[in-house]
Amino acid sequence: MATGNDPLLQPFQLRHLRLKNRIIVTAHEPAYPEDGMPKERYRAYQVERAKGGVALTMTAGSAAVSRDSPPVFNNILAYKDEVVPWMRDMTEAIHEHGCAVMIQLTHLGRRTTWSKGDWLPVVAPSHEREAAHRAFPKKMEDWDISRIVQDYVDATERMVAAGVDGVEFEAYGHLMEQFWSPLTNTLDAPYGGRLENRVRFAFDVLRAVRKRVGDKPILGLRYSADDTLANSFSAQDGITISKMLRDSGLVDYLNVVRGHIDTDAGLTDLIPVQGMRANPHLDFAGEIRAATGFPTFHAAKIQDVTTARHAIASGKLDMVGMTRAHLTDPHIVRKIMAGKEDTIRPCVGANFCLDRIYAGGEAYCIHNPATGRELTMPHEIAPAAVKRKVVVVGAGPAGLEAARVAAERGHDVVVLEAAPKAGGQIRLTSQSPRRREMIGIIDWRLARCEERGVTIRFNTLADAQTVLAQKPDVVIIATGGLPHTEVLGAGNDLVVSSWDILSGDVKPGRNVLLFDDAGDHPALQAAEVIAQTGARVEIMTPDRSFAPEVMAMNLVPYMRSLQKHDVTFTVTFRLESVQRDADGGLLAMVGSDYGGVRKERHVDQVVVNHGTRPLDELYFELKPQSSNQGAVDYTALIDGLPQALPAPGSGAFQLFRIGDAVSARNTHAAIYDALRLVKDL
């Protein structure tokens, strides 16, 4: 399609605001504020998306308007006056790239906890607790309602003073929508009872805001037009509310979602992860637009340009959000305009970004480590002053990233891979149908390496002689690791690894104990493979919770599968030994780190998941011959400075290792290892 005819590249007039194309980054909180303020790191993250060509970026998801709405992770504090200059600096920097700026404001209501911030009671229009955040709220009084309305007004005025083009109010799951549902609103009239009363609070806020700030700022509402809960509010109620919003003259657009977020399962259905249906709510958003004839925005697992283009061309949406996709590649629009859609780094739906906000405190993309690190890591690689010969051993995610970055630096790159195909552990991961999107991490890098003339030699089990024959200046060992199962006091020879099950090298048993002492994806993937055969499966962990590395939203699809197959989960018990029993089966002896307990399990298969140990023989073989003895200058690495390299043509080579060849970590860590080392070679 010629870019001049591309529906995604057509401008859109939103009242007085002309948006240069139809792609937006919807409000989300990557948790980069410092002291509740959007300082340099936050600004750099947002500006990178503006440079990439989006028409509109929305900051915060959501900024807090009141002190009794403390963020449960690191959000912008819109109730502080000091936010204004920080927001103004960011707004002006974004505007320099022709991109509009909005911010999303909210009061979380019961979707927070009293033990954060100022330790004030959580408030909601009922005493009903939200399962996800667990606080029992105070049922709101009239003075709570009036002061929070005023807090919304004051926060909006601060944002207008900062020069934003508009403000979006977050309703779904938060206080506004807690009023909408009879499940969470037990107030009497005028704020409880029939639908017109339940939506009164939202309209009170909108009217008060318009009265204070006037008509200039764009105002919108992001809300669920059907929370899909029984005895709550229906799609028909959602259409009614949508028409009320349109007719009020108080908002300029509707930002529609579908579902509820009070549980991990509900949140994952509303914001789906890999293996779940793509763009599941797009048609519903189109129904709202058709019913209202009003500007409609929407985002939910719209990962690819083709789907986004369809959303606009079909008239379902006026503006399409590709938010997680822009965490993966901030330059999507620029690449569309250049006719290079095939070079867009794909969002693989791993949801490392969202899950990590809760688990690690800040969002990172599983395979773009420059996201959130714009101050130190490049999204585009600069050429090197001196061309080097770089040999990479291993074509997993770490090795291919090292090869890609080295090639974009202009180096001569050779990759040696023992297997017949690239991918390493990701190729194993993608064997599971629900996680097959992960192979996009590998495919994208293979394509970039091919573009840059990287030589990849498969079926090559490299030894020192093979590597040195290439006359390298730099050798990067990215050989990964192998499963470690030697964790028992006795019977290690009787167990198999989670990899054995996933690869198909070992057939699942009929009565299986899976001991998981790593808490990551392979254990649950292996359990899923085994359970789908009809076998009985028990997952045992010495931890107080199972699969802590998988994180909340990624856990949901596993649980739906494993619970259906009646898999048993046993926490706080440790597998100690395995032996053959009299019937030829296995007797597993189980203890506890807490002491005083000993149990037995009679099974026919024991699977152990305990991470990997590095495949490092080649590294140690090469280490004595290297100029740096394998050492990494950590100070230079952290400060973004190059490692000291021997003179070209000297015959000396530097040696590094990355990813699981160093220690068992995860895909993001492996790729980050490669980027921050090789970007300066």
Per-chain topology:
Blueprint: E1 12-14, E2 17-19, E3 23-25, H1 40-51, E4 56-64, H2 83-95, E5 100-106, E6 123-124, E7 138-139, H3 142-161, E8 166-170, H4 175-180, H5 195-198, H6 200-213, E9 218-224, H7 235-248, E10 253-257, H8 264-270, H9 282-292, E11 296-298, H10 305-313, E12 319-321, H11 323-328, H12 332-337, H13 352-360, E13 389-393, H14 397-408, E14 412-416, H15 425-429, H16 439-451, E15 455-457, H17 464-468, E16 474-477, E17 481-483, E18 496-497, H18 498-503, E19 511-516, H19 521-531, E20 536-541, H20 552-564, E21 568-571, E22 574-580, E23 586-591, E24 599-603, E25 605-609, E26 612-614, H21 617-622, H22 634-639, E27 654-657, H23 667-678
Parallel strand pairs: 3-4, 3-12, 4-5, 5-8, 6-7, 8-9, 9-10, 10-11, 11-12, 13-14, 13-16, 14-15, 16-27, 18-25, 19-20, 19-25, 20-21
Antiparallel strand pairs: 1-2, 17-26, 22-23, 23-24
Helix pairs in contact: 1-2, 3-6, 8-20, 14-16, 14-23
List keywords for this structure.
single chain; 681 residues; alpha/beta; eight-stranded parallel β-barrel; five-stranded parallel β-sheet; 23 helices; 32% helix; globular
What does this structure look like?
The mean pLDDT is 96. The chain is α/β, with parallel strands linked by helices. An 8-stranded parallel β-barrel has the order 3-4-5-8-9-10-11-12, surrounded by 6 helices. Strands 15-14-13-16-27 form a 5-stranded parallel beta sheet. Strands 18-25-19-20-21 form a 5-stranded parallel beta sheet. α8 (264-270) crosses α20 (552-564) and α14 runs parallel beside α23 (667-678). It is built from 23 helices and 27 strands.
